[in-house]
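Much of what follows relies on a compact textual record of a protein's fold. A record is reproduced here so that you can trace the correspondence yourselves:
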Amino acid sequence: MPNRHALIVHEQPPSIVIDEGDHSQEISPLWLRERTRAPDQLESMTQQRLFDSHAIDSALTLESAVLVDEHHVVLAFSDGHKETYDLRVLADELDETSHFPFAEPWDASLNQDRLRFDWPRTLDDPAYFQASLDAYLRYGYIILQGVPTDPEQILQVGSHFGYVKETNFGRYFEVYSRPTGNDLAYRSVALGPHTDNPYRSPVPGIQLLHCLVNETTGGLSTLADSLKVLEQLRAENPEGYALLKRTPVRFRFIDAGTELVTHRTMIQTNDDGHPTGVHYSPRLDALPLLSDAQTRLFHRARQRLGELLTDPAYEVRFPLAAGDLMMFDNSRVLHGRTSYNTDEGHRHVQGCYLDTDGPRERFASLMKQQGLMGKVA
């Protein structure tokens, strides 16, 4: 968790400055004015503004700044607004993501036991539920055990952790050997690490896979953290990494009644340009049209990404037994499956997708109940 920003108040000329030791930055009066918490300007429950901040005069100035005590300052603006600001609240605004766990990249040395949780207990114990959400947000996946093997139970689990996303496959889908299925997931062949539905906009944020029956010795689930893999790829091939980060590729899905096509980069980033996952599915992508040299560079980077994702140093494997359910970030944690022999017995898994923000919303709600989060996340 980052340290709270140090704020320094200057009364002459009036200003508030962010002091970060080696450098400082004055906060714009516009930024401060928009952060009003005056009761006639901010609805207390929703924290939504009661005025149009876009209409504030762009020439707004700070007329005065009077420090009341260590934590409070009275600010007066050129539009006539005057208010006592809490410097701690302003610091929280600057560190607005600090309430949530930060992603911790992992490799094959990860202790998988810390990511296993008892499903019934997540329903009855809020602190335990919060621990499961914390683990998911840090590591990108969790395993729930003791999930009833009733049909559609996966929807109850999905609704507990977030919001189920319906697709052309339905609210949930069945995964078992089906020779004529419209996706290789329905066959008994091995599946390499991949992102589900990279051809969809938006890409499903979270995937759940719930094992109802597993009578086979094969079909091990595989997971790899793309954040850890991307660290290595960037170190080995910075030019190729940059090309995957900025060059959109085509992803396409076709079956008898559907065709979905989109273009997006293979490396997914946040607004600051930091990687948050990948869009990776060798069965569904197509090389972009670049110069021959750039195409070869792109292909080598794409090829190496695939090699790293299947490297035992980065991959965890485990059997998914009846009653187990794995929930994972569909872009960050790539999933796959080893092959299995249908002659050994039946294997039946159900899957569904959730929107990305569900676990964060649930986590924020639990934090607010404990008084640990004073604003809407």
